[in-house]
Structure of Protein SIEVE ELEMENT OCCLUSION B-like isoform X1:
Amino acid sequence: MSNYQIASSNVLQSPLELDDDQILENVYKTHFHCVEKCDVQCLHSVASNVIHHSIAITDCLINKGSQQSDQFHEGSSFGCVQQLTAKLKRIACQMLCTGRGDKYAHHTTMLILEQLKAYSWDAKALIVQAAFALEFGKLSHIPQSQSQSQSQGEVVDQLLEVEKSLAELNGLPSLRQKSEELVILNGLVKKVMQMIGCIREWKELISKEYEIKEVPILSQTLHQIPVIVYWTIFTFVTCTAQINYFTTTHHTNRDNRYELPKHFDHRLDGILKSFQENLEDCKKQIEAIEDYTKRKNIIYGGNKDIVRVLRALIISTHQYSDSRQIVYCGLNGQPVKIEDLKKKHVLLFISGLENIQDEIKLLKGIYEKLKEEPREVEGYRKEDFKILWIPIVDEWNERNKKDLEKMLEDTKIGWYVVKDFNFKTGMRLIREVFKYKDKSIIPLLSPQGQVENDDTKLLLSVWGIDGFPFKASDYTRLTQQWNWFWNEITKLNPRMKDFIEDDYYIFIFGGTSSKWIEEFETALNTLKRQIETTVPIELYRLGRDDSRVVPRFWIAIDSLLANRKHTKGGGGEGVMDFSTREMKRLLFLKQDPKGWVILSKGSNVKLLGQGEVMYRTVKEFEKWPRKLDDQEVSFDVAFKEYYERIKLKDGPPKCEHSEITYPSDILARIPCPNVDCGRSMEVTSVNYKCCHGLEQPNVAPRSNLC
């Protein structure tokens, strides 16, 4: 659009009669691709220096009637302005020669925008700011009072004379009679400098190159910035015209001066306030993104620890100095420091507040079991495993707060709880890192803050404390370590496949004592009838239908063990995989004089038991301290607890023996198959012996275990 077109289409328009959308449309007609470049930082520094200096001078003139002895800010660079000098003077001249009235100011503003069409939005405003500074800076030549003009030397006297002459030529002495008008001008200049500050701030924000989808409010500022730039330039044009009025001494008639409409200030305030609010929202959104990125880097980065990761997840910036504001002990409600979890493995219980009774019951059982013997398994200490509950709700209103407190009071949980968790960035990270989708999960974090198991809930539900130390590999190990057993059993009894698929509790047993077998089977059938409505039980006695399958079964297990001893991971110095260990346990258990029993839930073997202790556990069902009616614990957990209680009550475990048939065993270091012991068995000639540290002087010199 040509200058002539601009003039003809806008000369009669008043911007105060146009809404923001109409102004936006007009301004966009003058804007093209940003091909012209200038050092906006330098330009802004120089122009602001002049304007702020001049504001200070006029403020002093208004308040004290004299100029303060101020100087330009040291270190300002003026070389960057030289290439724009001609353009600045031309724009300053246009503004100075603008006729009175907002229509003429609008006309000049549009002409200036046309001239600056190839510059960026912030550059347009800053170039006009610099042009305005050329005129406004003349106020620095206001004559000094006699008390402040005392010179020291001939050169200084001459400079003062020049300054006085320049002030006379620019009509500045007349300003002393226009203090009221100066107040209005200074107020307007200060306001437009706020607008310049907002434009600079906006430029810094968009320079970070965030996408609109990341910072949605940026789209509003992109819509606002042309309007803000327009009103900034319009205000500079208006202020320059005011300066022209001030410095024209013959304008003594108040009716001849130009006054802005009263609602101009209100319009400017509204536009500035809206833009400032959007900028503030932009900063908050960008700060949130940067905070999220920083925290995400902590979680996924190396050289970290569990405390740093948990802080990144649950502690907001304003809470960072004291984690006790949100982390509490569930048992007594006392605040705790998150540093208590340093060097610990942490089971994170992430859930809502509804339908989590089963998970709480499950974790209560795990919490209690972590305090029991043995204290160390597979090199992991149980005391190093902690539970942290992070309840997540849409809003922590009074109802949700009361529900949580009531739940804590009713359940008496002993682990840590995060209360009033409303940290949005933390919630986003939890959903991303742990794939949380409003359904409870229990991931496991290592002392280094690494995720060792995405969700231990299935492992804990199926295996309980036997799944310790709860790593993802433990589920695979526990699930597959008995595949060899089920392969042999289903060959002997194909119906077992159905019971496994239906997740029945299965008792598989055998032995050399026919009396014990009869008594155990009778007791087991009685138990089955008692609880069949709630606990599905199936039993299978090895060799019941065909006694010939018994030796075949044990020969198959012996062969499997022999094959594993000659494969990697099956045996040897310090090496024994879980399947090999369980084979050895079963073969040793076979030597029980009464019998042996395996209890499983589906394909998950829960217990290998000694004949007499298993019989008493089944027979004394009514004496179990943990009842099944209130669903406090599962059947297998209650069974194992009573089994261990009887086993401990009977005193030190007796030694049993097993004949060694494989010469390769002689050179192997074999741990005691008893899961409660685990010590390496002593090699004595061709015999293995382990007494769990107890003195057993009367043990026969054969392969022994306790």
In short: The chain has a mean pLDDT of 79. The radius of gyration is 43 Å. The chain has three domains: 21-65+80-142+164-250+260-287, 306-476, 482-566+578-650.
